[in-house]
Backbone:
């Protein structure tokens, strides 16, 4: 029962996070469309910096949304909380801090270090 309850709680948290990230993305897109910078009265480098910053924000939000969607799919498949590399359980404390974690901390460190 504890594992099932935990999955339900995590699903609700992830759904909330998905809604929030999607709203952030939509608001960012709306702000970009409203501002459509012109170079009149602005230095070209400043306009380019703003454009790059907005693009990076959108990319990060897209990655966040994708990670959340994948986590929800893992919950639905019954594999949420299982490391994709070693197939051991991911620590509950790790999932509480990083609910989209797909690797245990050991495998994540190996993945990041390329070992």
Residues:
């Amino acid at each position: 029962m504890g594992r099932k309850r935990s999955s339900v709680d995590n699903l609700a948290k992830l759904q909330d996070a998905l809604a929030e990230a999607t709203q952030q993305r939509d608001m960012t897109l709306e702000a970009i469309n409203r501002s459509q910078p012109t170079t009149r009265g602005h230095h070209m480098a400043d306009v380019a910096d703003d454009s790059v910053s907005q693009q990076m924000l959108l990319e990060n939000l897209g990655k966040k949304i994708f990670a959340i969607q994948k986590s929800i799919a893992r919950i639905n498949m019954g594999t949420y909380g299982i490391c994709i590399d070693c197939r051991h359980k991911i620590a509950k404390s790790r999932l509480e801090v990083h609910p989209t974690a797909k690797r245990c901390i050991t495998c994540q460190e190996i993945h990041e270090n390329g070992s």
Summary: The chain has two domains: 1-80, 81-115.
